[in-house]
Amino acid sequence: MRIVLVGPPGAGKGTQAHVLAKTLSIPHISTGDLFRANIGQGTPLGLEAKGYMDAGRLVPDEVTIGMAKDRMAQSDAANGFLLDGFPRNLAQAKALDEILAEWGIALDGVLDLEVPEDEVVKRIAGRRLCRNDGSHVFHVDYNAPAVEGVCDECGGELYQRADDTEATVRHRLDVYHTETEPIIAYYQQQGVVSTIPALGKVDEVTQRAIEALKSDS
């Protein structure tokens, strides 16, 4: 299956992408991983992207598209893939369609994770990370530490990331609505979008997504 996963920040895309890709036995292709791999390996696209990033500029669509195309062409993606973070705007969505058409294939589905905006803000603004180990993550409402501000795992100090404040989260939501949300309408015209309520337990959301993919196939 060839799937695009879309949704606002805080919708749980990363978690669902990992679980769904494993369940469907297809690679999870995220924009973050693409950039890290290309920059780490020193590929021409990676070096180009790094140049823009080091200069504090946005990486052009054509560079991101090139990275995604190279990754989708790898052997482990021959039978499908799950795209997370790409496409992130209409130009990238149209480019993806052109790439797939060139290869004689098409998307099987676009999963739109739907979460109320206030819930997104609550999820992200309530996160607290351990300074000693960033993998120790807590939440002031959903997974509070036994002692406020102290990591249950190692006793380290818990802190809020600068980009997890409410003001920053609302700005990220504005960017999502302006840049990424239009691709949902674009794919709705193709009849491949399934909107998935993303509230509830992780396995419940995953089951909704799998059922939606079954009904579309």
Automatic annotation (TrEMBL):
ATP binds at residues 10-15, 127, 137-138, 200. Keywords: ATP-binding, Cytoplasm, Kinase, Nucleotide biosynthesis, Nucleotide-binding, Transferase. Signal peptide: none annotated. One of its GO terms (molecular function) is kinase activity. Consists of three domains, a large central CORE domain and two small peripheral domains, NMPbind and LID, which undergo movements during catalysis. The LID domain closes over the site of phosphoryl transfer upon ATP binding. Assembling and dissambling the active center during each catalytic cycle provides an effective means to prevent ATP hydrolysis. Catalyzes the reversible transfer of the terminal phosphate group between ATP and AMP. Plays an important role in cellular energy homeostasis and in adenine nucleotide metabolism. CDD domains: ADK. Residues 30-59 are annotated as: NMP. It holds the Pfam family ADK_lid. Pathway: Purine metabolism; AMP biosynthesis via salvage pathway; AMP from ADP: step 1/1. AMP binds at residues 31, 36, 57-59, 85-88, 92, 161, 172. Belongs to the adenylate kinase family. Monomer. This is Adenylate kinase. Its EC number is 2.7.4.3. It comes from Kitasatospora kazusensis. It catalyses: AMP + ATP = 2 ADP. Residues 127-163 form the Adenylate kinase active site lid domain.
